[in-house]
Amino acid sequence: MKIAVLSTNKNLYSTKRLVEAALKRGHECVVLDHRQCYVGIKQGEPSIHYKGQDVSNIDAIIPRIGASVTFYGSAIVRQFEIMGVVSANPSQAITRSRDKLRCMQILSGAGIGMPITGFARQTNDVDDLIKMVGGAPLVIKLLEGTQGIGVVLAETRKAASSVIEAFYGLGNNILIQEYIKESRGADIRALIVNGKVVGAMKRTAKEGEFRSNLHRGGSATVIKLTKAEKDTALRAASELGLTVCGVDMLQADRGPLVLEVNSSPGLEGIEKVTGKDIANSIIEFLEKKHQLKREPKEGKKKSKVGQTL
Question: Among 13, 28, 32, 304, which is disulfide-ready with 2 (CB 3.0 to 4.6 Å)?
C-alpha cells in the first residue's frame, strides 16, 4: 500500500513511529501536511493535490488532525474517503469526537458513564448550572481546548461564577463539569484500535495540579483495565464511530466515567509506558481494512469470469 500520514510535523514522535511501522511492514509511506492539501471537486473525478502535485494515488491515510484545523482537516479526510481511500478514522467520527459537547451528548444518549455536565450561554444561568453539576468544586472546560489547556478547577462557588462569567464575556463556549474528588488527580487512557484495547495507562497529576495530562507534567504507569473500564472505553469508541482513538476515563465510586475521546491520540506516552508497538497495530488494522475493500471487487471479477465460461 501507499500510506499517507496526515500530520503538520513529520518530526513528531507519533508521526515518525507510524512511518517507521509502515515501512517495516513493507509499505510506501509519506507525510502530508493536511493544511497544504487542497481538493478538486469535479463530477466523477474528485482529486487531492499537495504542493502542486496530484496525490490521488494514495491507498490509505492516517489522520493526525489538530484541534485548531479540525474543519479543514476533516474536509481533506472526507475528500480522500470520497475517492475510495481507506482511512484509520472516518471524517465524521473525527468531527464528532472533536466537538466536546456533541461527544458528551452522544455518549450520554447511549447511557455511557460520564461526569455530570452543563452547557449554557447566558450569565444569568450560572447559578443553576453550578447547582446542576453538584456545586463547587467543579471543572470548567473550553470546548476547543486540548492537552489540558483551557481546563480550570474552581474550588468555590464564587470562584466558579467569576471564571464562568469571564469566559462568557470573552465569547468562549465552555462546559461546566462535576468534579470527581475520588479520582485524586488521576485518569486512565485506553488506546483502542479496531474494537480492541491495545494498551492502557494510568496518568497521575504532579503535585499541586489536578490535570493529569503528560503535557502538564503528569506521570504514567501501566494499568490492567477492569471489565467495566474496558467495556466503557470500547462502547465510547463505537458510539462515536472511531476505530483508532484514546478514551480518557476517571475511576469514580459509581464506575468509570468518560472524560474525552481523542481521535488523534499521542503514541509516545503509552508506547513507552506499556512497551507495546501501538503504531504497528494501527498499520496492521489499515492492511485488513484495505484488504476487505479489495475483496468485493475481486469477487465480482471472478463471478464475471464464471459467467463467461
Answer: 28
